[in-house]
Each structure stands twice: as structure tokens, then as C-alpha cells.
């Protein structure tokens, strides 16, 4: 009888310890990540030429990667371009496209001419912390079973690879444009209206402007190597490119959608702005309320930045002129979108 009680106690203790461990590390026990195309090359450790679609016959395969890879390094590419492994006799891509993670269909654009992404779909992975989005562009078709709001399982087929776009992508360069990242605002239309673009915003909150990508390749390779326990841990492990302060008392809806990335001041404590940490290429990784934005400080203060990481030709988030640091155009856009304020 006594032994039985000790045994029961030990079982409960170990379950409780496991519970604490899972809580403490933001562990997503069911987190699964799947490659979005049938090509096994990356999983097998093969090089770029085995899966990335280059932008032209005389270009390097890196042109299909994430980063400053376009226009001699002056233009940013916010995802991966993945080429097909199967074509029909007319040369059309036959690859199925799979959901990268469990999620919900939050946007579908079925009119190719309406976007540089062509026919595209955005999934929001609402069960993980933070709720990442993934985007699948240039599709030939979206699976007819897939509708707005449909729940999809990881590795479920969601469409077919193609070459759809508002511009011409030749058939022999059919590919999937694939992005993973965070969404800046839930009121993109307000920002769009303030900019007086010549064309209307046709994609609600799922315009490319409002989506900030991370490099999918290390996200996949570290997942395969069990290098992180959850997307939250992965994002927190990314290098810090810049830390800035924004003098506003607004609570961005980013903080409500991604509470795991935000730190709020304790009740009753005065705060007068936000300290924001940006990871690679301006991915916001932490927003924290601060009391360091007194009346006499400028709207945006650059606290620190990594000169090495900012030494690139595109998507700089901090600029230095005559020894003074100031926010680059891209950073201004991010802050406007995050906080719904005018930076100018
Ligand atoms: Zn692309």
C-alpha cells in the first residue's frame, strides 16, 4: 500500500516536471515542418543547384535564395525560388505544393495579373508561437478543396507549381516562391491609403509589404538537426541587427497577435515608448515597453546596430551619415506599419 503511494507520487512528480519543462521552453510538442515541394534535395544536404531556381541561364543559383541576391546584390528577395522536379511533355511543372506547417488558409489570390506573386496563398500557422505565416507564389492552381479559412495539415497538398505572375515568367523558369515570416499590421489598408499608390491594394493584410520573411533554409536545416524546440526559440536565436526606441504610447496589434515576442511593463509602471529589436533584414523579434522615451528624445532613437550585418547593398535598416545613425527607408516603413504612426 505504502509503495503504491510512493509510486503514484513519483509518477505525478515526473508528469509535473515534464509540464514545467514544456511551459518553460515554449516547447511546441506537435511542431512539424515539411518541405513545400516533392524535391528531396535540400533534405539530403545537396547544394543550391539541386533545388533553387536561378533568375536566368547565366545567373548564379544563389539568385533563387533569400537575401540581397538580385540585381548584383541591390535587390532583396524575401523567400526561396524552388524549381520543379517533374514536368509534362509541354514543359509545365507538375510538382504538388505542400503546406509547410499545420495552419489555416488566411489569404488566396486567384487572379494572376493582380500580383507579382501571381496566384498565391498565405497560410497562418495559428497553433504555434509566434503564429508564423507561409506564402506560396506563382502557383498554376490552388487545390479546389482549399478555401479561405480551411484548416490544413502539415504536408497536405494545397496546389500545383506554376509560373503565374503579373509579369512574364517563362515556362522553363516555373518555380514556387516560398516565404515564411511574420505579419506586421492588421490594418495595412490605413498605411496603404496614406502612401497614395497608383494602384489599389488588392490583398488586404496579405500584401508583400506587410509580410516580413525569415530565411527558410536555416529554419529547415536547424529543424532537421533538432537545433530548436519551437519557432519561438528559433526566432529568439537569430542575430540582432538593430535595437531602436520608438516614442509612442500606442499598443501595436503586432503585440496582441504575437504576445510571445512582446514584453509589457508591469502594472502601474510608467512607460512612454517601445524598444524594438530587429533580426536579419528587419524581422521584428522583440517589442518591449520602455520608460526611456522622454519628451525631449526624437521619435526614433537608434540604440545599437550591427555594422557587420548592415554591410550589404539592400534592405539596410540603419544608415550612417557623417557619423550620425538614422533609420533607413525600410526601417521607417516597418515602424509605420508596426505602430500605425507617420514617420515621414
Ligand atoms: Zn521569388
Explained architecture:
This protein has 6 helices and 18 strands. By secondary structure, it is of the alpha+beta class. The strands form 4 sheets. Strands 3, 4, 5, 6, 7, 8, 9, 10 and 11 form a 9-stranded antiparallel sheet that branches. A 5-stranded mixed sheet has the order 13-15-14-12-16, with no helix packed on it. About 4% of the residues have low confidence. The protein has 2 domains: 177 residues, Glucose Permease (Domain IIA) (Distorted Sandwich); 102 residues, no CATH class. Bound molecules: zinc ion. The site of zinc ion has 4 residues, from loops.
Summarize the topology:
Elements: H1 2-24, E1 67-70, E2 75-77, E3 80-82, E4 96-98, E5 103-109, E6 119-124, E7 133-142, E8 151-152, E9 157-161, E10 176-183, H2 188-195, E11 211-214, H3 216-224, H4 231-236, E12 242-246, H5 253-257, E13 262-263, E14 273-278, E15 284-290, E16 300-305, E17 318-321, E18 324-327, H6 329-339
Parallel strand pairs: 13-15
Antiparallel strand pairs: 1-2, 3-10, 4-9, 5-6, 5-8, 6-7, 7-9, 7-10, 10-11, 12-14, 12-16, 14-15, 17-18
This protein binds zinc ion.
Zinc ion binds next to loops.
CATH superfamily of the largest domain: Glucose Permease (Domain IIA)
The oligomeric state is single chain
Question: Distance between the terminal alpha carbons, to the nearest Å?
Answer: 75 Å
Number of helical runs? 6
CATH class of the largest domain: Mainly Beta
Number of strands: 18
Q: What are its keywords?
A:
344 residues, alpha+beta, Glucose Permease (Domain IIA), 2 domains, 9-stranded antiparallel sheet, 5-stranded mixed sheet, 18 strands, binds zinc ion
Amino acid at each position: 500500500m505504502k509503495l503504491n503511494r510512493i509510486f503514484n507520487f513519483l509518477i505525478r512528480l515526473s508528469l509535473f516536471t515534464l509540464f514545467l519543462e514544456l511551459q518553460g521552453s515554449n516547447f511546441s510538442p506537435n511542431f512539424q515542418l515539411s518541405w513545400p515541394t516533392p524535391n528531396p534535395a535540400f533534405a539530403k544536404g545537396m547544394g543550391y543547384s539541386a533545388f533553387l531556381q536561378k533568375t536566368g541561364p547565366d545567373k548564379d543559383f544563389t539568385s533563387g535564395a533569400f537575401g540581397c541576391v538580385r540585381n548584383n546584390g541591390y535587390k532583396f528577395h524575401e523567400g526561396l525560388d524552388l524549381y520543379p522536379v517533374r514536368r509534362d511533355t509541354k514543359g509545365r511543372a507538375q510538382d504538388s505544393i505542400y503546406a509547410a506547417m499545420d495552419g489555416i488558409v488566411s489569404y488566396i489570390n486567384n487572379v494572376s495579373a493582380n500580383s507579382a506573386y501571381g496566384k498565391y496563398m498565405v497560410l497562418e500557422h495559428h497553433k504555434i508561437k509566434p503564429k508564423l505565416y507561409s506564402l506560396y507564389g506563382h502557383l498554376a492552381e490552388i487545390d479546389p478543396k482549399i478555401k479561405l479559412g480551411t484548416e490544413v495539415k502539415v504536408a497536405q497538398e494545397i496546389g500545383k507549381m506554376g509560373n503565374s505572375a503579373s509579369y512574364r515568367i517563362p515556362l522553363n523558369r516555373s518555380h514556387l516562391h516560398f516565404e515564411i515570416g511574420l505579419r506586421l499590421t492588421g490594418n495595412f489598408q490605413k498605411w496603404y491609403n496614406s502612401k497614395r499608390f497608383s494602384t489599389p491594394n488588392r490583398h488586404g493584410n496579405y500584401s508583400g509589404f506587410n509580410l516580413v520573411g525569415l530565411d527558410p533554409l536555416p529554419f529547415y536545416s536547424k529543424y532537421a538537426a533538432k537545433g530548436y524546440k519551437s519557432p519561438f526559440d528559433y526566432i529568439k536565436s537569430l542575430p540582432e541587427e538593430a535595437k531602436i526606441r520608438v516614442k509612442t504610447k500606442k499598443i501595436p496589434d503586432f503585440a496582441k497577435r504575437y504576445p510571445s515576442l512582446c514584453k509589457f511593463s508591469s502594472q502601474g509602471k510608467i512607460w512612454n515608448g517601445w524598444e524594438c529589436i530587429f533580426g536579419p533584414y528587419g524581422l521584428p523579434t522583440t517589442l518591449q515597453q520602455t520608460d526611456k522615451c522622454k519628451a525631449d528624445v526624437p521619435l526614433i532613437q537608434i540604440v545599437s546596430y550591427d555594422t557587420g550585418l548592415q554591410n550589404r547593398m539592400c534592405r539596410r535598416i540603419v544608415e550612417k551619415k557623417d557619423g550620425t545613425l538614422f533609420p533607413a527607408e525600410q526601417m521607417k516603413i516597418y515602424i509605420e506599419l508596426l505602430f500605425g504612426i507617420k514617420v515621414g
